[in-house]
Amino acid sequence: MATATLAATLNAPISEPRSAPMERILVIEDNRALRKILGRLFSSEGYEVDVVPNAVCGLERLRHGVPAAVVLDLPRPGSSGCDLCKKIAKLIPGLPLVILSGSSDVADKVLLLEMGADDYVTIPFSPRELVARLRALIRRASRFSPEEADVYVFADVMLDFYKTEITRGGEKIAVTPKEFKTLKFLAKNAQRVISRDELLNEVWGYQHYPCTRTVDNHMLRLRQKLETDPSHPSHFLTVHGQGYKFVP
Length: 248
Known about the structure:
Blueprint: H1 3-9, E1 24-28, H2 32-44, E2 48-52, H3 55-63, E3 69-73, H4 79-91, E4 97-101, H5 106-114, E5 119-122, H6 127-142, E6 151-154, E7 157-160, E8 165-168, E9 171-173, H7 177-188, E10 193-194, H8 196-204, H9 213-226, E11 236-239, E12 243-246
Parallel strand pairs: 1-2, 1-3, 3-4, 4-5
Antiparallel strand pairs: 6-7, 7-8, 8-9, 10-12, 11-12
């Protein structure tokens, strides 16, 4: 896999701005030396790097937390590689996926791109080019708002706006139409404090309502269904005296 060549070029400066801190890259790589090289490369660019040795571990990580992008090494694309691309694309639609491979065959590239990959980089590659391609894919994916996209993902939760379905860790979660509408509105207004009255107006269509417990009860149920620890939520936050804030 020409790991010596890659290692020798890792110290070359990359002039593009570093990525926002704590964006996570999942690397699925069976070669130990290349795992270290890729981990060091992406870490040096400000990413949190999660490196696993095989497809089984990679899919398990995806079901328990969505990264900013996936880098998958396929020594030579085949049925198993195509299957993995399709599984990742199905599990988390829109997730940037970069394939690394020693094959320069155009047919291999076309096949994997059709199966769900977003980019294909041939080994040996330029670290600067790989980082630039990955950063561009992440930047492109982040431009899609919940209003524009069919799917919205946070943690291990995926909202399918087209199907009006929610899955968590790959398992479908039963929600009421109002719970789904509440979550969609929160996703469209992530990081913004939203009052109970605004939620009532936008989700229920009420200009005035005598009791805001309706909102509180819906938020409680969303926490119970979607938070890892509902008693200490990390996504559906209460802002005392003001309302709620959704943090992806």
